[in-house]
Amino acid sequence: MGGSLGGCTSAKKLVYFQETTTRDDTVTIPEPFIPTIKKGDLLSVQVSSLNPEASTYFNPSAMAEASVVPNTTNQLTRASGYLVGQDGTIKLPLIGQLTVVDLTTAKAGELISSRLKSYLKEPTVNVRNLNFRISVLGEVARPSLFTIPSEQITLPEALGLAGDLTIYGRRDNVLIIREQGNQRVFARIDLTRRDAFRSPYYTLHPNDVVYIEPAKVRVTSVDRAYQLAPIITGILSIIAIIATRP
Predict the structure, then answer these.
(1) Which end of the chain is more exposed for a tag (fewer CB within 10 A), N or C?
(2) In angstroms, rounded to a whole number, what is the distance separating the alpha carbons of residues 98 and 230?
(3) Where is the Polysaccharide export protein N-terminal domain (predicted)?
């Protein structure tokens, strides 16, 4: 394969998670990332109880939710739910305002369920964050914005959703852009090494951006195409003129 790319890309550069020099095959699994609700998040709140008819009052409009379908342009318009205001609250029917900011979705569900016990018998509440989205850009098969219903995704899983890196994508210099407080952090991961599993950026956070840089061979081939295009066009024009002469 490297030969087909002008000998500039070796097979070794395309292999993920290569052996270390110590041949240590055990890598510690990092603690799972548990996201919390932020201001501006859009929450899906689904309520059920022993009285389904009464429960429907708390599930207005059977909210249409975003799904993990790459390359769809209307994901953002299909998502609807309860917007977390700048005061960190959402407003539910009968219950009124509830402060949910900095809670996990599981804790928010427990809070809502406890308030619903005045209106429903044995209520069960499922809360999901519809704003858990990531972007995968650059040298991948299907660059796109993805919504993650499970609120848990790793870097390899995100690349899988995007159809994996193209043959031109750099595995050894994957860029992760993450918002942390009032800062935007730029971090890089080498996916050809197994210690990529130890990176704090291996597990993605909401609104992370994954960017895959093109390898030098890709840039060179594009430049060569731009250089050759006028020449080829000129040759074809001359051939066309000669062919049309009487």
Answers:
(1) C
(2) 64
(3) 36-128
CA–CA distance, 204 with 151 (Å, rounded to integer): 9
Calpha distance 174→191 (Å, rounded): 7
SS3 177: strand
- The answer to whether 110 touches 103, Cβ cutoff 8 Å, is no
3-state secondary structure 29-78: CCCCCCCCCCCCCEEEEEEECCCHHHHHHHCHHHCCCCCCCCCCCCHHHH
C-alpha span between 21 and 97 (Å, rounded) = 57
- pLDDT, residue 242, reads 67
**Tens digit of each residue's pLDDT (9 = 90 or more) over 59-78:** 865 544 444 444 444 444 45
What's the CA gap between 201 and 211, in Å, rounded? 13
Strand order through the sheet with 209-212: 144-147, 133-138, 209-212, 174-180, 183-189
